[in-house]
Write a structure and sequence with these properties.
3 helices, 5 strands, binds NADP nicotinamide-adenine-dinucleotide phosphate, 150 residues, alpha/beta, Rossmann fold, 14% strand
Length: 150
Amino acid sequence: MLVNNAGILYDTWQRPLTADLDVVREALETNAFGAWRTSRALVPLMRRGGYGRIVNVSSGAGSLSSMGASTPAYNVSKVALNALTRMLGAELRGTGILVNAVDPGWTATDMGGRGGRSVEDGARGVIWAATLPEDGPTGGFFYDGEPEAW
Ligand SMILES: NC(=O)c1ccc[n+]([C@@H]2O[C@H](COP(=O)([O-])OP(=O)(O)OC[C@H]3O[C@@H](n4cnc5c(N)ncnc54)[C@H](OP(=O)(O)O)[C@@H]3O)[C@@H](O)[C@H]2O)c1
């Protein structure tokens, strides 16, 4: 099981027209390329075992259908992570490796601050995706085990 959880730069201070593109690049580096690199590193091992679960911890901020003008660096990085999820899901179909994106929801962590749901609640959907049975979904985007709009 690979849980790509590392995430940075919830850039509430930026808007797309004035955003510092170096900050956007930095967000992409960790939030999207980080997950891409760790997946590349571990898929060969998963293939050998004929089993794998990759969980990309995404966000509602990566949902195009509800996207506004806030947090531009974070948004594009999570959209890219969702695209990676679709692509890897397709490339690995039939190998025993399931790849899904999970939105933990607003969670009371260092990033989320106070007011969000508990870490236990936020983690539940991640654990669900990490422990899917063989016939579970792949290439999807989920919140608490239910499909979320792309
Ligand atoms: N909290 C929310 O409301 C919320 C909502 C939706 C989605 N998410 C997503 O949930 C995931 C976890 O977020 P969180 O709320 O737990 O954030 P957090 O409290 O800021 O924690 C982020 C974690 O990522 C690690 N990290 C950052 N950059 C890294 C790198 N380059 N390599 C390795 N580790 C790195 C940090 O490690 P260090 O402490 O060592 O820097 C930290 O442990 C993220 O992907 C975030 O986008 C969170």
